[in-house]
Design goal:
Elements (H helix, E strand, L loop, with lengths): L3 E7 L5 H4 E7 L7 E10 L2 H7 L16 E9 L11 E5 L8 E5 L3 E3 L6 H6 L2 H13 L7 E4 L5 H12 L3 E6 L2 H9 L4 E4 L5 H8 L4 E6 L3 H8 L2 E9 L13 H9 L4 H5 L4 E4 L2 H7 L1 H16 L7 E6 L3 H9 L6 E5 L1
Parallel strand pairs: 8-9, 8-11, 9-10, 11-12, 12-13, 14-15
Antiparallel strand pairs: 1-2, 3-4, 3-6, 3-15, 4-5, 5-7
The structure holds NADP nicotinamide-adenine-dinucleotide phosphate.
């Protein structure tokens, strides 16, 4: 008889409370370059919220198993896999399929992780820290003393970017939408916490830094991206890695409005003031450059193990509470990383 596993399927778009169903399925055969992991827990990402709302075009057709990262123990190794052992605790990056009791992923996307990390801390090191690492260390480069803006700085990727920029000796501006989150930003070392509900982030930065800033990490997209770009001093760089603004837009022209909101940029307009625009999509990196994803995974886990980076666990939910956890992530009620345990 074929062995079974369970997964949480996204069965329909809409509210987190009604969108998911727990189902059993047969464990697939293990390819020779892959690792099977018995999952303790998996992480939630904002892209999952976008997928649940039908706004993530890379998501698989329904019913779909979402999920980019899991922590658990190696259960089986493909014939060609070396350097991992049965029972070892590992972090795995998956291209969807993470909301499951078992994941099977290429060995390149699996790294050891020690017992000291809780499920939310461990899974933070998957998509969110790797995205931040790729943006801040591979796509762009930060230098000591630079002034750096991190949007949604209290979130998963945001927390990681703040830590990476502080590690490099940068002056960090971080946005968040509540006083509670601002206190959190102070606790992780943000020099200029900005409550965008009280003052526009660009008004604040123009007031305290009229000559402009060096780097912007933008996950808002649309007009938020354009407003960030306009803050850049000569030599400035901006990394765009999200389009959260899309969630707030309704109506038939919502996507068009988001796209136009970004603004239009000519090479000449970048060349003369020496500005850089970088786009970041970790899913594409994982697909097209798996060795680069591995470089990011090894870098962030090494620094977290040594205590140089400190993933912030924002909470671990029971699998029965996945709908609630999704709603909280969408409604800006979370800090750092949230995860789900089996
Ligand atoms: N390109 C990639 O490869 C990649 C990879 C990972 C994540 N991302 C993107 O990075 C961003 C952060 O992802 P995450 O998983 O770490 O999530 P997160 O930041 O932990 O959670 C989302 C946060 O974004 C802020 N936000 C801003 N605009 C929002 C809106 N319109 N609706 C809801 N929240 C909004 C909220 O913080 P405030 O309360 O402070 O507003 C919210 O708490 C997302 O945009 C995600 O799509 C991209």
């Amino acid at each position: 008889m074929n062995a079974k596993m369970e997964a949480i399927y996204l069965v329909k778009q809409g509210s987190g409370e009604t969108a998911f169903e727990r189902r059993a399925l047969t464990l697939p055969t293990l390819p020779k370059n892959e690792v099977r992991i018995a999952v303790e827990g998996f992480g939630l990402n904002f892209a999952d919220v976008m997928a649940r709302n039908g706004l993530y075009r890379e998501a698989p057709p329904l019913p779909a198993i979402l999920g980019y990262e899991s922590v658990g123990r190696v259960e089986a190794l493909g014939d060609e896999v070396r350097d991992l052992t049965i029972g070892q605790r590992v972090l795995a990056f998956s291209r969807f399929g993470g909301y499951a009791t078992h994941v099977q992923v290429p060995a390149l996307a699996v790294v050891p992780i020690s017992e000291k990390f809780s499920i939310d801390e461990a899974t933070a090191l998957g998509t969110q820290y790797c995205t931040a690492w790729y943006a801040a260390e591979e796509a762009l480069r930060l230098y000591a003393g630079e002034h750096v803006l991190v949007q949604a700085a209290a979130g998963g990727v945001g927390t990681a970017l703040v830590q990476m920029a502080k590690r490099k000796g940068c002056v960090v501006y971080g946005t968040a939408g509540s006083e509670e989150k601002l206190n959190y930003l102070r606790s992780i070392g943000v020099d200029h916490p900005i409550n965008y509900q009280k003052e526009k982030f660009d008004d604040y930065i123009r007031r305290v830094r009229p000559k402009g800033i060096d780097v912007v990490f933008d996950c808002l997209g649309g007009k938020g991206f354009k407003r960030g770009f306009k803050l850049l001093a000569p030599g400035g760089r901006i990394a765009g890695y999200g389009a959260a603004e899309r969630l707030d837009k309704k109506g038939p022209f919502a996507t068009l409005s988001l796209v136009f909101g970004f603004g239009f940029y000519s090479p000449v307009g970048l060349l003369i003031p020496s500005k850089t625009i970088a786009g970041v999509n970790m899913l594409r990196i994982a697909e097209q450059k798996p060795e680069l994803l591995r470089t990011c995974m090894l870098a962030v886990t090494k620094l977290a193990e040594s205590g140089e980076l400190n993933p912030f666990g924002g909470g671990v939910f029971d699998v029965a509470e996945i709908g609630k956890a999704h709603e909280m992530l969408q409604n800006r009620q979370t800090k750092g990383k949230i995860a789900v345990r089996w």
